[in-house]
Amino acid sequence: MRVQGFPRLVTSLLLGRIAQQMLAVGFVLFVLSRYHSPQLAGAATFVLLFPGLLLSPIAGALLDRYGRAQLITVDYVVAAITLFLIAALSAARALPPPLLLGICGVASLTGPLSAAGVRSLFPTVVPGHLWERANALDSSSGVLAQVIGAPLAGVLVGFAGGEWALAATAMLYACAGVAILGIRDPGNKQRGRGILAEAWSGLAYVLRNRTLVGLALTFFAFTAGWGCLVIAVPVLVLGRLHQGPEAIGYMWGAMGAAGFVSILIAGRLKTRGRERQLMMGSMLAIAVAVSFVPQASSVFVVAAALVGVALVETPFDIAFLTLRQRRTDPARFGRVFAVSMSLNVVGGPFGSALAGPLIGWSLNGALWAAVGAMLIAAALPLLVIPARDES
Question: Whole-angstrom Cα distance, residue 215 to residue 324?
Fold first, then answer.
């Protein structure tokens, strides 16, 4: 914390991640309470995430070329403005579904700037001998953000309404943008070629790397299942189990607390040479935990299943991240991480978009589809990820 600029970076990171967790929970609850449509909730979540993922190669090239702190601020400001706009228009009853989807699409475009920007700013601000401590603080802040953000969003929606939850989220994004202003980015700025050429080089590197492609396929299946749960679980809790929005926030928060415990237990795992097996075992355990959700007769069963997911997910995360770092050229971290991170999470928007029609057909069908996606993710590491680095 004595490294120049690092306390402000951590403050911005924590505020931004709390806002992100609030948005993940509060936005779905807002759409469900305002429009009473799981289909629109799935479509809006898809539009809020997917368009920006398509621009991730360009975002990575911009991050390598210009100051990361300034570009992260741009994304936080765009997020704050668009969320304020959604909240204000909804309060005025002037937000038809097409306009909501349009605003979500605009908000999505700058998303990769902060997602990859913060991740690549850490190793440039912090000296190499402190990377382990900085990365530990990075991981812990993500868990803390879930513990704080998810319950806060649920409580705000339950007691003040979805518009107030979105407005509070916008305020946090704005504060995160202010906190990171002025941080000096000492990383080398690469300006040898054009933006599109640099973007293409990052994309081509990822697509030629069998390990990165295999990781992307594995994570696509995982996040597709999770994206389905993000829509289906609130519908289950609000509808079939007759609970309020705050119950959903508490459940996601309990997941964060369980994840923190899991990090303390599994954080010392030695993964070298066992990454694929750890990913497979962790994902099988996640599928077993999720399989209890379709049969749940009370909110406590759902909460217990989600806590179980958090407890067994950490080995997957550790193995996934370390394998990606070991098999990526360090000179390409900025571009490669922007592309790789977007490819890894692209399944989430598709899962959320698919959840709406599936819920219209059968809520249990949507929940079992999530279980199926987890099982596919469990099989992929051994099938598509090379046992050794072939780059």
Answer: 8
* Crossing angle for the helix pair 111-125 and 131-159, to the nearest 10 degrees: 150
Encoded amino acid at 51, one letter: P
> How many of the other CB atoms lie within 10 Å of CB of 322?
16
Instruction: Give domain status of residue 300, yes or no.
Output: yes
For residue 144 the two structure tokens come to 């803390």
For the chain, how many structural domains are there in total?
1
Q: Which residues form the domain of 61?
A: 6-181+195-384
Tell me whether residue 191 is exposed, middle or buried, using C-beta atoms within 10 angstroms of its C-beta: 0 to 12, 13 to 18, 19 or more. exposed
| Cβ contact 253:146 at 8 Å | yes
Provide DSSP, 341-377: HHHHHTHHHHHHHHHHHHHHH-HHHHHHHHHHHHHHH
- Lookup result for tokens 């987890």: 374
Do residues 112 and 342 lie in contact, with contact meaning Cβ atoms separated by under 8 Å? yes
H-assigned helices in the chain: 6-35, 38-54, 56-65, 68-91, 97-108, 111-125, 131-159, 162-180, 195-208, 210-235, 245-266, 275-290, 299-326, 333-345, 347-361, 363-384
Q: Residues 157-211: pLDDT tens digits?
A: 988 999 999 999 999 999 998 888 877 766 555 555 666 776 677 777 777 778 7
In a domain, 239, yes or no: yes
Of the CA atoms within 13 Å of residue 249, those in its CB half-sphere come to 26
Which residues, including other chains, have CB under 8 Å from residue 68's CB and lie 6 or more apart?
Answer: 117, 118, 120, 121, 124, 185, 187
CATH of the domain at 110: 1.20.1250.20
Q: Is residue 189 part of a domain?
A: no
Question: Could you tell me if residue 1 is inside a domain?
Answer: no
pLDDT, one tens digit per residue, over 29-83 is 999 989 989 889 989 988 988 888 788 778 777 777 777 778 888 999 999 999 9
CA distances from 6 to 34, 127, 343 (A): 40, 11, 29
pTM: 0.77
77 contacts 177 by C-beta, under 8 angstroms:
yes
Burial of 387 (0-12, 13-18, 19+ CB in 10 A): exposed
Residue 172's contacts (CB-CB under 8 Å, 6 or more residues apart) are: 15, 16, 18, 19, 22
pLDDT, position 23: 93
